Amino acid sequence: MQLFGLEIAPGPFVIGMAIIMAMLASVAVALFRAYLYICRPNQLLIVSGKKHRLPSGETLNFTVIAAGRHWQVPYLQTVKTMDLRLIPIELTVIKVLSNGGIPLDVHAIANVKITTDPRYVHNAVERFLDLPPENIKLAAKQTLEGVLRGVLAQLTPEQVNQDRIEFANQLLEITSDDFSKMGLHLDTLKILRVEDEAQYLVNIGRTQIANAIRDAENAESQASQEVVQAEAAARQMAEVAQKQAEIGIAQKRNQLRALVGQLEGNAQSVEREATVAAQQARAEAEQELQEVRQQLETKRLYAEVVLPAEAARKAAELVAEGEAAPRRELGAANAEVMKQMAEALAAAGPQAREMFVLSQLDTLVAQIASRVKNINLGKVQLVDSGDGKSLAALAASYPAAVISVLGTLKELTGVDVAMLLAGGGK
Length: 426
Known about the structure:
With about 425 residues, the chain is α+β, with helices and mostly antiparallel strands. Helix content is about 65%, strand content about 15%. Among the domains are: about 1-80, no CATH class; about 85-200, Band 7 domain (Tetrahydropterin Synthase, Chain A); about 350-375 and about 390-420, no CATH class. It has helices at about 10-35, 120-130, 135-150, 155-160, 165-180, 200-350, 350-360, 360-375, 390-395, 395-415, 415-420; strands spanning about 1-5, 5, 35-40, 45-55, 60-65, 70, 80-85, 85-95, 105-115, 185-195. The relative contact order is 0.04.
């Protein structure tokens, strides 16, 4: 490889070029880091050489960057930083005359920082750029002490001591303009102590304590008197209430007795009425029971006597009708036979009746014999008058019975069977 007419090996050339490129890159990174500024949250970037126009129309030769980053133009711009962190300041003013001529010692603490308000931040740049924080602290402390003395001259010791919040608010309000001109911001202000060599505040406190003790004692005494009066009034009211309660109790007892008597009378009346009603109800129930028993007995007799009797009567009637039916039929048949026999006898002439009786003679004799045969004699005692006729009369009673039966037959048929048997007829 030829470079400017010289032969160069490829390997060393490549290595040299790489080294040169690395050196150039390192220089570029170093320049980049040297001229690139990043604004942190607790600082401001002050760029000199770059003009900035304010809202009022004024033109400044620097620019304040509160956030972001800035690339510095070499040799044309300079970049510096300002710290935004709080600066604590202890304030002590001694023997400051307050309203009323009482010298006071006030101890307070304040926190001050560079403002970030675009309207006033350039004031801080103009006054405190490149100065140490002690200068900012001293300027703020002197301003606060002056304002503090001015405010104390307008307030009484009581106002300073009692309303410290209002005192601090007044300080903040008054210092606002002065701090804005310096580009500072009063973040907090706290009053720690308010003292005086003359012990005015202590005496005020003692007086107030004494007044408070006096008021407390008076209040306690008044409260004790009120308690005594209230106890007496309550005792009197209690006695009156007790008397009224006793009277009311007595009245209620009398009313209770009257009510109890009335209730007892009503109860006795109700009890008597209930007894009478119960007796009447019992009598009515007994009467109803007797009626029910009578009805039951009637129904029982009807069921046990009348119904069986009627049933027996109907049964007897049915049996009699059943038994009489053959007899009626037999009687009707016999009547028909007798009618036909009478007609036959009438047709046969005068001798027909006797002939019929004679044809039935065996039957008639058998009937007569059965009548006489059924007569049984047991032990017979005869009382004879001595003529012997009693025994003959007893013996003759059998033929007399036969003759009586034959006489009855004659009355029925009109045929003298005894005469026919004796041969008295033909």
